[in-house]
Design goal:
Largest sheet: 9 strands, mixed
Strand order of the largest sheet: 3-4-5-2-1-6-7-11-12
CATH topology of the largest domain: Rossmann fold
CATH superfamily of the largest domain: Glycogen Phosphorylase B
Bound molecules: adenosine-5'-diphosphate, alpha-D-glucopyranose
Mean pLDDT: 95
Helix content: 40-55%
CATH architecture of the largest domain: 3-Layer(aba) Sandwich
Distance between the termini: 16 Å
Number of helices: 21
Oligomer: single chain
CATH class of the largest domain: Alpha Beta
Number of domains: 2
Amino acid sequence: MKILFATSEAHPLIKTGGLADVSGSLPNALADLKHKVRLVLPAYQSVMDKLPEKKAYKKVAEFSVSGCDRVYQVKILQVKVGAVAGVDVPVWLVDIPELFDRPGNPYLAADGSDWWDNGERFGVFSKVITELSMNRVGIKWQPDVVHLNDWQTGLVPALLSLEKTPPKSIFTIHNMAYPGNFPKSLFEALNLPWSLWNKEGVEFWGHFSMLKAGLIKADWVTTVSPTYATQICHPELAYGFEGVLQDRAAEGRLKGILNGIDSQVWNPLTDELIVKNYSVKKGRLTGKQANKEALLSDLCLYRGESEKKSDKRLANCIDKPLIGLVGRLVEQKGIDLVLEVIPELIEQSNANFVIVGTGDKFYENQITQMAKQYPGRIWVFIGYSESLAHRVEAGADMFLMPSRFEPCGLNQMYSLAYGTLPIVHHTGGLADTVVNATESNIKNGLATGFVFYDPSRHALKSTLLHALHLFDKKRTWQKIQKTGMEQSFDWKASAQEYVSLYTEKN
Ligand code: ADP
Ligand code: GLC
């Protein structure tokens, strides 16, 4: 089967979050199943900078597409397989310099606000994907299936619905919190067909929603975990789309498929970003302790302390529980709850914290302030660091993920693989992947982490205290670590589920 996989980010070319991890690994897993896959994404400036040399890609098509009251010249640059390590399928970069050749984040300007023309950027990107889907640009590659991801590609199923013989479309929701809502004037300026402007199309309470276009017009809609597929049919997490989603579910067109993880990238046995590789097979997980030591000593030095002083601190904290958090510092991730419980835990327990993330300036400032208030107990890195993310997974004892909602979540799965017990709120993919350490689950060898059921500071705090209590019971702790590390979250089963959908009759 020929599969065109369209996304706005893909690791290792460009990443802001889990969408990149999925887009960087699911296409490879589909290729392993002997399907022909093309990965298409915008030729952002930072993607072009990552390409080793000019010879890494070649122009395979050039055509024009209309934007907002103007026409863009589009080049499709095909990146050779093997040119970028970890990318096992040919990549098509959509090169429109006026829209994508900008520094920094794919969605945000330097001041943290959305790029002013995101609607046009991804509207045009979707038009280009549609042309590729219809094999109209002279590449001679007709996909059987087009797999779209999130609102940035949401317009594609709507545009394909206007074609006589379109390929099948799958639209995957990674996060309903980003609806791609724009004013009606954008719909007009993009010169889109009026037949799409209605309740059964892209119109959403007078606005133009690219998310709705995908939800309503794709042949199949998927979410990145089974629990999230159920949750988004209820108003609390549907952002007004519950009606549309309930209809799709009633037609049997909404399905939850759990994300996999890339076991080439996130595997403690082979991870090149950590100081000592380890695995569950070796029994006592001694390698993990070496990673904790290395992480703590890096953190002490990072704070600008002298080596002598940092050695002393290190000796002080090596046996104390270290709780890690890596993620976007936004409301979704329950950062407010974390900010509320940390001071109490610092006063009442011997736990230390390491937090890595970027996001809302408000949270960034609060967390930085807190780290100043408790030197040697909390370390904070405000920024994006792939290597630190790996070192925290390997070096921390527990991983905090108290998300208010979580479509899937990848870090809790990485944590399980690294023997770092996740502490999670029972929602979305977190509920589907972590088994709570109750007495009976521990006894039956099922427990893999800690789950709380109400997103409140009290529930989070008592769960953390329970985890800290078990941390002192080394044999029980190791049993839970081992169970977690033995879970299999690789892509095989989930990629197969996608293939079943691709081949299902429309
Ligand atoms: P989301 O996609 O909602 O941000 P996920 O758990 O699915 O959440 O995926 C987040 C991914 O982004 C993980 O690979 C995580 O390690 C990574 N990540 C998030 N913030 C940072 C950061 N500041 N530095 C490095 N990696 C980060
Ligand atoms: C989104 C979600 C996250 C999910 C990721 C990849 O960013 O917030 O839960 O794991 O997409 O699907």
